[in-house]
Amino acid sequence: MKILVCISKTPDTTAKIAFTDNNTKFDTNGVQWIINPYDEWYALVRAIELKEADASNSIHLISVGGSDAEPILRKALALGGDEAIRVNIDIDDSYTIATQIAEVAKSGGYDLILTGKETIDHNGSTLGGMVAELLNLPYISLATKLDMNGSIAHVTREIDGGQELDEVATPVVISAQKGMAEARIPNMRGIMAARTKPLSVVEPVACDALTSTVSFEMPPAKAGVKLVDAENVAELVRLLKEEAKVV
After folding, report:
1. Has residue 234 been placed in a domain?
2. What is the number of domains present in the chain?
3. CA dist list (Å): 37 to 59, 111, 171, 186, 226
4. What is the pTM assigned to this prediction?
């Protein structure tokens, strides 16, 4: 089975967020980039587990971005990917990114395409569905468990108030979230091996972006905390009514 795992570059969760060019661009100065956690911890690690269960499985990685995405692809290779592909275009439009992934996937003969449920920077949760549509493949989102029985995928996904159990024949696109697998750390052997694993760069296909960024805006600063003496119930009630607007 050939598995394609979609890898996105995102800012570290501790990065200080700022914007430039009249709040139209994310300020990348001093930002440390990581693999999007949903892609790494759940999609990629589950793919690695499937390969560990069946050594005939192979894992290809794909990322759409500039050369600064290559270090995170090398980390993904160190974790257990076999080879990586970088599509040489730096863009945030989900449709364009999905188009580039689908174009590569068309000629790759992949049985299983895995992606995280969303990226932690844009939180769009649109990529998996777009890739599936462009490839005319079934799509299962928000998967918390994935098992394979030959060419049949058994998938557990979250729904409102419960879980849904699905069976689907490959090829299929699945987006993964918490519960799919447990995070791993690359070992020294994996890090050394990743240096020589194939990482190819392909040029993008023509595609018109469907979205563009108008502006970014920081959330309002949190108000200070007011402490009220435990004996002063009247003051607490007043603050709740007048300032917190609790009726």
Report:
1. no
2. 1
3. 18, 23, 24, 14, 36
4. 0.87
